[in-house]
Amino acid sequence: MMFERFTKAARAVVKGAVEHAERAGAAVVTEEHLLLALLDREDTRAADALHALCPPDRRPSLLAALAEARRRAGLSRADTEALADLGIDVGAVVARVEEAHGAGALAGDRKDAGWWSGRRSFSREAKAVLEKSLRVALARKDWEIGDEHLLLALTATGGVVAEALADHGVTYIAVEDAVSSPAV
């Protein structure tokens, strides 16, 4: 199993992501929960990279971008633009749905009233990040998967989280440079 290769810091991120999902009442752990758990970390390679690339004073903007994407049902700008090319105004759709069902109706993070097994699963996208972190570690010739590999994987998988990170200067190349630089 891949999790044996996770460092203590990477395991803490996965555990933190589950805790973020639980606090939000989300049915599954998402990429966003992984990012939130990474943002919680201190004194790790990923935490240092995030601190350098997206300092704490810029984090509210990052979180607002994620919240806005959640409000659009998780659609990225590319998705929104593609739909606009088809004549679909996502902003108008969101406004109509929220008018009928309340603010945040498309967010998908409302409390799940259905059956729950007691253990949160990971979304397909979050699983892809975990799998990508292994490929990133192998490409870097690292035997263990650290939290920096999770951050690199988040920036490389595309989608809303990668888009929000890139908008805040946290790209794959920038993270690669930050985690490859010797500690000060």
Automatic annotation (TrEMBL):
The keyword Repeat appears for this protein: yes
Alphabetized UniProt keyword annotations: Repeat
PROSITE patterns documented for this protein: CLP_R (PS51903)
Clp R domain residues: 3-184
InterPro entries the record matches: Clp_N_dom_sf, Clp_R_N
A Pfam family: Clp_N
Protein name per the record: Clp R domain-containing protein
UniProt source species: Streptomyces venezuelae (strain ATCC 10712 / CBS 650.69 / DSM 40230 / JCM 4526 / NBRC 13096 / PD 04745)
